[in-house]
Amino acid sequence: QVQLVESGGGLVQAGGSLRLSCAASGFTFGTYTMGWYRQAPRQERAFVARISWSGGSIYYADSVKGRFTISRDNAENTVYLQMNNLKPEDTAVYYCRATKGDSSYWGQGTQVTVSS
C-alpha cells in the first residue's frame, strides 16, 4: 500500500521558516522523482519543486527560488522542503508527489499558513 505522509506544516510569521517532510512507503522510493506542490484557496495546485531519484537534478518554481530547498534521503524514504523567508503568499496546502513513468502518487497535504 503506497503512502506519502506530509508533516511539518503550521502557522508562522512572515520571514520565518518551516521544514516540511514527506515520508514514503509502499514503493521503491529511491527510483522515483519526488516533488512538492501547493494549493492556495480558490487556486489550482501548483508546482513548487522537484528532485530526481538521485538528487542530481533539482528544479524550483520561480516564486520560491532562493528561499526554498528540496532534498531527499533515500535511506530514510523521505523528501524534505526547507522553506525560509516565508511570505503570506506562500500560504497553501503543501503536497508531496512521487512520479516515475506513468506512476504518480500524492500525499494528503499539510497546511502552511504565513501571517503578515
Explain what this protein looks like in three dimensions.
The protein has 116 residues and is mainly beta. Helices cover 0% and strands 55% of the residues. The strands form 2 sheets. Strands 2, 4, 5, 6, 9, 10 and 11 form a 7-stranded mixed sheet that branches. Strands 1-3-8-7 form a 4-stranded antiparallel sheet, with no helix packed on it. A hairpin with a 6-residue loop joins strand 5 and strand 6.
Features:
116 residues, mainly beta, seven-stranded mixed β-sheet, four-stranded antiparallel β-sheet, globular
Strand content: over 45%
> What order do the SSEs take from the amino end to the carboxyl end, as H and E?
EEEEEEEEEEE
Structural class: mainly beta
Q: Evaluate the radius of gyration.
A: 13 Å
**Overall 3D form:** globular
Major sheet description: 7 strands, mixed
Mean pLDDT: 97
- Ranges where pLDDT stays below 50 over 5 or more residues in a row are none
Count the helices. How many? 0
Helix coverage percent: under 10%
Q: Distance between the terminal alpha carbons, to the nearest Å?
A: 40 Å
